[in-house]
């Protein structure tokens, strides 16, 4: 059996996360939204941007791990990663005429198990 690359694992986790969100009534707005900050400063990326049924714009970080050991996938979304997601989200919002309600969710994919953490962190 061939070993999958990190990118393949990440892409599969994002696809599973998107299917999970769509099954719960959320609609895809954008996938893999990236923004650069500068030559020596990391920018940001949002794995999935979806709209909830109530109009809330949801910025989703997807994390995949083979198992829940070492704190699991959700525990790997550290403050530095949160800041990069928030940075990209703020950039995305500048292109909108009207600011909708927003939240930041994390989808943890551990093997076949998907855990959806609504409001996992905030922009503060």
UniProtKB/TrEMBL annotation:
Origin: domain of life: Bacteria
Q: Which InterPro entries match?
A: Restrct_endonuc-II-like (IPR011335), tRNA_endonuc-like_dom_sf (IPR011856), UPF0102_YraN-like (IPR003509)
Q: What protein name does the entry list?
A: UPF0102 protein HQN59_01035
Pfam families attached to this UniProt entry: UPF0102
Species per Swiss-Prot/TrEMBL record = Piscinibacter koreensis
A GO molecular-function annotation: nucleic acid binding
Membership in a protein family: Belongs to the UPF0102 family.
Could you tell me which Gene3D superfamilies the record lists for this protein?
3.40.1350.10
**HAMAP family in the cross-refs:** UPF0102 (MF_00048)
**Which PANTHER family does the entry link to?**
UPF0102 PROTEIN YRAN
